[in-house]
Amino acid sequence: MNVQVTDWPDKLFATLKRAGIAQVGYVPDAGHSRLIERCRADAGIRDVVLTTEEEGVALAAGAWLGGERAALLMQSSGLGNCINMFSLARSCRFPLLMIITMRGEWEEFNPWQVPMGSIVDPVLKLCEAEVYRVTRPEEVEGAAERAVQHVFGDERIGAIILSQQLIGKKVWVK
Amino acid sequence: MSGRLERRAAMAMLLEDRADDLLVVPGLGSTTYDLAAAGDDPKNFYLWGAMGGAAMIGLGLALAQPQKRVAVITGDGEMLMGMGALATIGIQKPANLAIVVFDNGVYGETGMQPSHTQSGVDLVGVARGCGIATCLEVADAAGLRDLGQRLKRLRETLFARVLIEANEPPRVLPERDGTVLKQRFRAALGVKA
Fold first, then answer.
1. What pTM value is reported for the model?
2. H/E segment holding residue A160
3. Is the ipTM here above 0.90?
């Protein structure tokens, strides 16, 4: 793989650092593995591994109450787990920055990923989230910067969607 | 039910001479009303929804404010819905976080239907199994007084189950505009974006 294809997680990480993100909640995910690794290795970021994604919505609210910024990393399947908990962010205008890796949309081997993957955009729209969709590596940083500004500047929900085209397909049989 | 504590008196006793650095997050429903009845404070973050989220709000807050103490005081139904949070908190081990469950064995808000704890689910056992350092059963006034003292000087993550009588005192309803609750809480802490 060439550098251009693989350096976008580092650019995302750099954006999170510039934004002063102090807590990162995540459910382990292959597409986010590099970003998770960077967060775990950073002394200024508290990495919080979650049992389910909705925990991260509540974590981010608590962080903001206490004056810290948080980000939530998940796979598209996790978005569905969050829907009722979004009422916390929506009722109180808590900033909620999500970075979502897509499954079920492009060269997907596992058909069980399709039902949730196919409704990510409308679900986010219904939940009043601003969507920043990225399909090419060079778009990642700009989208992330805009999302950070919207989320923390205006205390809103924003989702950076990393398309399956960007991430590359999962290898099932090596 | 005999041998159980009355919820309003229990909340009042826990928060007697409340320390200035104690931040309180109740669960939706009865514990929010109990907290409001014990006396309003900008450092209360009342919940009117987000069922299953109270403990995780407490975690994010405790990590952000390590010099303050955070008490999540919620019901058994609310805790059961977000039980995975105990595993998440168990490995984060914030020294300034207490999770207190007012366990009356029923879903009071919806008509007193029995919860899992009435049929033997042991929340203290779950908390202990998740690696939470101090796990307590509180069944009388002496235990409550001890828990109140512990909340004043937390040194490791604490979980307590308080045996609560299944009654339903008249509701005391606090502010329910979430943005107001958020802004006044942050203002009381003096935090900025």
1. 0.96
2. strand A157-162
3. yes
